Structures are given as structure tokens and as C-alpha cells.
Amino acid sequence: MAEEEINYASVVFKTKTQPRPEAQKKEDTVYDEVKVPHKTPKQAADMNVSAGFLSDMKATNRHHRYQLLACCLGTFCVILLLDIIAVGVFLSMYTGESHVSELKQLKNNRTTLLLIKHNLTDDNNKLRSENENLRRDYNNLTVINGNLTQACTVSESRITTLTAENQKLTAEKQTLTAKNNKLNTQIQELKTQKNNLAEQIRKLSENSVDQEHQKIDAYCPKDNNNNRQCKACMKGWLHNQSSCYAINNAKPTDQKTWEEARDNCTGKFSDLAVIVNEDEKKFINDNSWRSKGVKGYWIGLRVEDGRWKWINGSDLTESSWTQPPTNGHCAISVQNEGWKSVSCGEKNGWICKNKALSL
Questions:
Q1: Are the beta carbons of 344 and 302 closer than 8 angstroms?
Q2: What gap in Å lies between CA 244 and CA 125, rounded to an integer?
Q3: What is the DSSP track for 230-248?
Q4: Which is higher by pLDDT, 284 or 7?
Q5: Which range, of 66-75, 142-151, 152-161, averages the lowest pLDDT?
């Protein structure tokens, strides 16, 4: 009677990937137990006994059939075991390839993520550097802004001051412009006066020569032999001491105002009579006779600034004459009445005086 044999087959599937957790390691080893049944001699004997009366040949054939059946069953079990092993190997290979593919993908992803992390780290460092630079620039700009604000405040104050000064200078400029225009007008007037004076001087120069000739002819007229004989006074003039006098007994239509009378005397190389002493005053009064239509004769005395003044600029010192000074009044000499104060605009005769020629 043969002993029962139990055969065990152990199949271990391993991958070349990284170790997996402990739970998965336990699943790596799969044990399959395959029990191959064999007929023991005791069972055969029992069968022979139960056959009893079968012939040995029949028992032997039956024995061979059992053996054949056992061999078939063993072969089937081996084939089944091989199939199981093949399926296990296939599953192991499939699972391993899947894990390898996933690991490769994970490695690639990890590499990509590491590269991205590296780039992000670089970008982060750059951003930190830029942030530091920006913070530094911001601080600098804050300082500059403070300085500019202070400078702007000073500039605004300066601008206000300059504006006030500019307005003041503008006002002064306008004042100076007005004064300048006025001065230009005055200069133009002075130029005009200068030209007029130059013309008058030219005429006076021309006239002075003529007047000198006239004066010579008046004081020293030529006789029939064309010889000159000079006299102290001009013809028709009265001689008294060192002066000559012209008594103008003009008709009423030819009488003149005080200014007109003075102009007439000036044209005769003389001026209205200025009386300097009592002898001259008596001579003037004696010759101030009342002619027909003449009530008096102008002399060189008039009121200026509320005072009686002679035309030579001296003040009246005659204490015996007490006519009050009235602006616009001049003095006339009336025979046997002395001097009288009348309006300078009246028309009267006049007395001219000049210095006698020394012979």
C-alpha cells in the first residue's frame, strides 16, 4: 500500500520596480497546493475483496484503468497548475508593466514637476529680487518726493514773492512809461522850442546887424556929403542927463496897451521909462502933458505877485505914492497929477527910454 504524496508548488512574482508597501508585498507570493490523488494498495485490496469473484485478469485490467485514470487526473492537475501558473505569470507581467508604465509616467511627471519647481524657484528668486529693487526704488522715490514737495513749497513761496515783485515792477514800469512818455513829449516840445529859438536867434542875428546899422543911422545920420554926425539921442528924442526919452503922443486910434507900448519901445532900441530918482520923476511929469485924446502915458511900472515892480526887476520904493497893488494894473504918468493905477489893458500914450550916446 503506497503512501499518499502531496506536492506543493510555490510561485513568486517579483518586479524590478521600487519596493511597495508591506500590504502589497504579502500579495506578491501566491501559494498553490496541488494534491494529486493516488489509489493506495489497501483501497485496491478492498476493491479486490469487494469484487470477490472477479478474475485476476479483470482485476488487473481494472487496476490499469485506475492507474490510467489517475495518470489522466494527474496530467489534468499538472495542466491546470501550469495554467494557473501561466495566468499568475501573465497577471504578474501585466501588473508589473502597468506599474512600470505608471512609474515611468510618475518619474516623467516628477521630472516635469521638479523642472517646474526649479523654474518657479528661479522666478520666485527673481520676483524677490525685483521686489527688493522696487522697495528700494520706492524708498528712494519717497525721499525724492519729499524733497520735491519741500522744493515745490519753497518754489511756490518764491513764485508768490516773485509775483508780488513782478506786479510791483509792472506798476513801476507803467509809472516810468508814463513819465517817459511825458518826458518824450517835453523833449519834443523842447526840440520844437529849440528850433524856434534857433530860428529866432538866426533872425535876431540878422536883425541885430540891421538894428546896429539902424542904430548907427539913428544916432549918426549922414549929411548931404555922406558924412556922419553923431548925437547923444536919436532924432525926435529928448535928452536929460544920461538918458533919452521918446514921448509918444499917439492919436486915440494909435494908442496902445501896456504890453503893446513896451513892444513898440523895444523896437526902438529902448524900453518903457524906469524912473530912478526925483529929478527924472520931475522931468517925466513935466513932459507928460495932456495931449488931445491922451489921458496919460505908460511907464515901466506894473503889479507883479501883489507888488509894484519896475520892468528891470526892482521893487517900487516911492513912499509918496500909495496906490494899492492890484493884479493886472499898470502905472501911467499924468501931467500935474503924478502916477495913476489903471488896467494894463487900457490904451494910452507911452514914454520910451534908452541910454544916451556918449560923445
A1: yes
A2: 127
A3: --SS-TTPEEETTEEEEEE
A4: 284
A5: 66-75
